[in-house]
Design goal:
Chain lengths: 478, 224
């Protein structure tokens, strides 16, 4: 085998493995909530996620991939010996793969993004010296890692606060949901198309000016809001409630107590007495039920349930939004280095102008979909069961905040961690008193995982680099 | 990597409600004791008081469990110390119930005819205040759903006001009993007087604690 084709084969294999890994582990963050709240069946969720992950990777994936292949290290330093850079990129990929395996075995909350950035800059630093690393770019990226969870926390905090004041705190929640629903739909579609279309979709050769983009986004949002208006209008609104309910909760309690005592008699009696008591028990419990219904107790509770049900659809949209953004940002982790190696093998250097080829983006997207289909659906199922607390209203706000942040970062070519953005968004809702209980220990764990991941993957990629070099010298240079 | 799943801590709100339910069991047992009181069967009352003691212990176990499993880094929609405060108020109610049970089992109550009905009334009102507070604690689920505002909060606010009114009624009855006890014509032994006086005080404090509990929920509401 030629050395060149060996590299091509190696890098494509490892790149595919990385894409598989991303699809297997991280897609669950987007779709888990919708499955957990029962908004989507597992099958539908996997299907939707596959389409959107692929779409995100294919249409918006190139920006971050560019950063990965030439933004982190100064590739011009390696012009004389492109093989060094090829081996470096290969080992960065390999090291990231190994590190991810170790981390997921130990259950650490590490991010693929951090690992690959650490690995690439690590070998760049050792092989090319400190000049090889583009410190400015690296600092921007590290800054974006800190900023992105905060920004998504802020966005979801704000949108949840709006939802709180206008819907949850309203005297008639269903009525106000009906009024506000089109606005939420508008916001989602407006922001989505705005971020998506701004600076164009390179792969489709669409390039709009800012004013055009705003106009189109306005149109898309408007149409979506208009479409949502009709089904929402038909949701039944219960009448207004009396301000001061004349309920006697004690009555219900007493009746339930009576039912309990009757149950005791029922279980210890026979024949005629037993039948009579059973009869009484039925009567008492149905009376308690009736009073419960007549007082505002259950009615009000079901009000919020209706609101949650209405938000299910918005949650599905926002989940799709996350899946798309995730594909756009994370595909680069797998194919950024691959693109660099293929470019080097073909041209001997990384051109500063060429974009990542579309077929490679599709390849990465395909890898993610395969990961999703073979393993990811299982993780979606698990996560869906565990995060039922992210109800449609909360899930919608969290996902909207996270997805917007991720998509903006993708457009800026910043590789960030989607998981950490989502964690930030959930915390944002927690700060608005929207969550039962959040484990703040996770923040410490995440920060710790940053601090460990970057040097660990850097060192590992250097190690892999030397092993690879030995291997290549052994088999190919003679 | 289930980072997101691990972000969601174990909510202490349903254990809090379980604890309140256990406290409710104590109050129910206390009802049994008061029902048995007119017969003056000290043996039976003693037995019931023992059962009440056991129930109180059960509630204590739940309370300790909550305290042990509330890690420092758990982020709740209400203040952590406030949460623990609510828990300890609930605990105090159970303690009071146990104390009353014990008081009644030590010595037969001299059943003064004119006070009998007042005592019954006092007990029933106190229990009612407690049940009202318990309903408020049960409303916590819905409060979380509406993130402590809106309809749920309005409703709870009304319930808190009702609790306060019930407590007011309790103290009126309490005053009446005390006035009666201290009247010139009353001729009670010192032990008998002590028992009556303590009983009145403790029953009143169940209502007071329940009202306090309701008010503690009141301050976590987001009212416009």
């Amino acid at each position: 085998m030629e050395l060149q084709s060996f590299f091509e084969f190696l890098v494509l294999t490892v790149g595919f493995y990385m894409a598989w890994n991303i699809g297997a582990n991280d897609v669950s963050n987007a779709m888990g909530t919708s499955v957990g709240s029962g908004a989507l069946t597992l099958r539908k969720a996997v299907f939707l996620a596959a389409i959107l992950e692929f779409g995100g990777a294919f249409f918006v994936g190139s920006n971050v991939s560019d950063t990965m292949q030439r933004g982190l290290i100064d590739t011009t330093l390696f012009v004389n010996d492109p093989n060094l850079l090829i081996m470096g990129m290969c080992s960065a990929l390999l090291a990231t793969g190994i590190w991810l395996q170790i981390a997921s075995y130990c259950g650490w909350p590490v991010s693929t993004t951090h690992a690959i950035v650490g690995a690439i800059s690590g070998f760049g630093l050792i092989i090319g010296g400190s000049d090889a690393v583009r410190w400015e770019e690296l600092l921007t990226i590290v800054f974006s890692w800190i900023a992105s969870p905060l920004i998504s926390a802020l966005i979801s905090y704000l949108i949840f606060s709006v939802l709180q004041r206008k819907i949850l705190y309203a005297l008639n929640p269903i009525e106000s949901t009906k009024k506000l629903y089109p606005f939420f739909v508008f916001t989602v579609f407006f922001v989505f198309s705005l971020v998506l279309l701004f600076k164009g979709l390179e792969n489709l050769n669409l390039d709009f000016s800012l004013s055009q983009v705003i106009l189109i986004a306005f149109g898309v949002g408007g149409i979506a809001a208009g479409v949502s208006y009709f089904p929402v209008r038909n949701v039944k609104t219960p009448g207004t409630y009396p301000q001061c309910p004349s309920l006697r909760p004690q009555n219900i309690v007493s009746l339930e107590k009576a039912a309990k005592h009757l149950q005791r008699v029922q279980s210890s009696s026979f024949e005629e007495v037993h039948d009579k008591v059973s009869n009484l028990l039925d009567q008492v419990s149905s009376l308690a039920q009736k009073i419960k219904k007549e007082t505002n107790f259950s009615e009000k509770a079901s009000d919020y349930k209706t609101v949650e049900k209405m938000f299910v659809y918005l949650q599905i949209f926002s989940a799709c939004f996350v899946a798309f953004a995730h594909g756009a940002n994370d595909v680069a982790n797998a194919i950024g280095p691959v693109a660099a190696v293929l470019d080097l093998v073909k041209n001997g250097s990384i051109s500063q102008t060429s974009v990542v080829p579309s077929w490679l983006l599709a390849f990465g997207g395909f890898g993610i979909v395969v990961g999703l289909a073979t393993w990811g659906w299982r993780v979606i199922e698990t996560i869906g069961k565990k995060i039922t607390e992210l109800t449609p209203t909360r899930g919608f706000c969290a996902e909207f905040g996270a997805a917007t942040t991720i998509l903006i970062a993708s457009k800026m070519g910043l590789p960030i961690s989607t998981t950490h953005c989502l964690v930030g968004a959930v915390l944002g809702i927690g700060f608005a008193r929207g969550m039962k209980a959040l484990n703040l220990g996770m923040i410490r764990e995440i920060i710790l995982s940053w601090v460990i991941t970057i040097p660990a993957s850097a060192i590992m990629s250097i190690g892999v680099f030397y092993v690879l070099k030995l291997f290549v010298m052994e088999f190919f240079t003679s | 990597m289930l980072t997101i799943a691990r972000l969601f801590g174990k909510s202490p709100f349903s254990p809090l409600q379980t604890h309140m339910k256990r406290v409710g069991n104590c109050i129910e047992k206390l009802t049994d004791i008061f029902d048995a009181l007119p017969k003056g069967d000290l043996g039976r009352i003693g037995k019931l008081a023992k059962e009440l003691s056991n129930l109180e212990h059960e509630a204590d176990l739940t309370k300790n469990d909550i305290r042990n499993h509330l890690p420092k880094n758990l982020f709740l929609p209400i203040d952590r110390s406030h949460f623990l405060d609510i828990l300890s108020t609930q605990d105090h109610i159970a303690d009071k119930a146990e104390e009353i049970g014990l008081l009644l089992s030590f010595r037969a109550l001299d059943m003064e005819d004119d006070l009998k009905d007042l005592l019954k009334e006092l007990y029933q009102k106190s229990a009612e205040t407690f049940w009202q507070a318990k309903t408020i604690i049960e409303e916590l689920d819905e409060l979380i759903e509406s993130s402590f505002g809106g309809l749920g909060a309005e409703k709870v606010k009304n319930m808190v006001e009702q609790t306060a009114y019930l407590e007011h009624e309790v103290s009126e009855i309490q005053r009446k009993i005390l006035q009666n006890l201290l009247s010139e014509t009353r001729n009670l032994s010192i032990q008998g007087f002590y028992l009556w006086e303590s009983l009145t005080k403790e029953l009143g404090s169940i209502a007071e604690l329940s009202e306090g509990l309701a008010n503690k929920i009141r301050v976590i509401l987001e009212l416009k």
